Records
---
Amino acid sequence: GENVEQHPSTLSVQEGDSAVIKCTYSDSASNYFPWYKQELGKGPQLIIDIRSNVGEKKDQRIAVTLNKTAKHFSLHITETQPEDSAVYFCAASESGGSYIPTFGRGTSLIVHP
Amino acid sequence: NAGVTQTPKFQVLKTGQSMTLQCAQDMNHEYMSWYRQDPGMGLRLIHYSVGAGITDQGEVPNGYNVSRSTTEDFPLRLLSAAPSQTSVYFCASSQPGLGDTQYFGPGTRLTVL
């Protein structure tokens, strides 16, 4: 089955800095890579995703990159703000297959004002 | 749309007690899943369903039962609660072919004494 590794487990940055979270996956059949943000006391919510036919995707201050050859993908947050503080999860799944995603263990991002 | 709803939000059980965690979605999604979230362990899949009448085991199914009699509802049953089942439980739904996004409920925090 799929195995997703996520690093780092904790990331502390100053407001305005950039933050990068990295994930690797094992199953070459995976072709859908979403990122979820979980705020305290809430369920995870999708913030951005990327499919295997695309190398990079941006949405304002958030971007995701994918390297299919190396089987890794990353989340980049620029100009971080205190409200970006949350737990972030990466996931991998086979769209068109089982659809059930495998999640990484999460990264706790802390943005200091 | 209410999205994915879960009840109760909090629950305390004694070892050996049974209970059902409720999950409902009003988006007509085919897929529904149950996850547990423990510190440092990320989101681990307990059981999932790809449609009414169809369920399957995830990564950590022991001690839990599910059924899916309708598209909307996907209850999770703990037959004999154990302290190891102390966790936060999330229900999620998704619709294959419509983006694969998982929509999570707000979670149930369960403590087993």
Note: The CA atoms of residues 43 and 111 of chain B lie 17 Å apart.
---
Amino acid sequence: GQNIDQPTEMTATEGAIVQINCTYQTSGFNGLFWYQQHAGEAPTFLSYNVLDGLEEKGRFSSFLSRSKGYSYLLLKELQMKDSASYLCAVRDTRTNAGKSTFGDGTTLTVKP
Amino acid sequence: DAGVIQSPRHEVTEMGQEVTLRCKPISGHDYLFWYRQTMMRGLELLIYFNNNVPIDDSGMPEDRFSAKMPNASFSTLKIQPSEPRDSAVYFCASSPGLAGFRTGELFFGEGSRLTVL
């Protein structure tokens, strides 16, 4: 099975930097995703890591350590619109696309 | 591209009634997923298809739930009979898979919010 843990809630200030952690224990691994979900909307893809290291995409970066079963999403220069739930998802190896198992999400509140 | 299209967006029904949710995936995507999201259980995978064939339905709660994909551009999720505990947002997502060095990320529809009274 798969077990994915994220903090339930975080609060940060506009303009600051926030790091959202995700730890996972899976029977197989074929990539880790981060999705953003605004209240009442669908999740949208943010980032993907399959190899160890940092992937940077504008204000967002994601890091992966496969040996530690650990990832984080780093958000820089926070804006009010970044207030959302951030979902960590791990894809297993069983099939080509595999199925992604989602963590419960971290609700980020950005305050002025 | 129109994205993943789901209908209805909202459905309110009474316990015991049949509910049918519909999904049109992004053209060219070989994978289609049905997820359910609730506050208590988060986002759960119910079933997924590859090239219209069901691959893994281990997440389908019970026999009251069934899903079909008669062709590459249409899928349905049916609940019969519905119960109040089925109230949730049901998301359909499609993915191009991993061919051609793609990441295989999911593209979600806007969801169908189901309320069973």
Note: The mean pLDDT of chain A is 93.
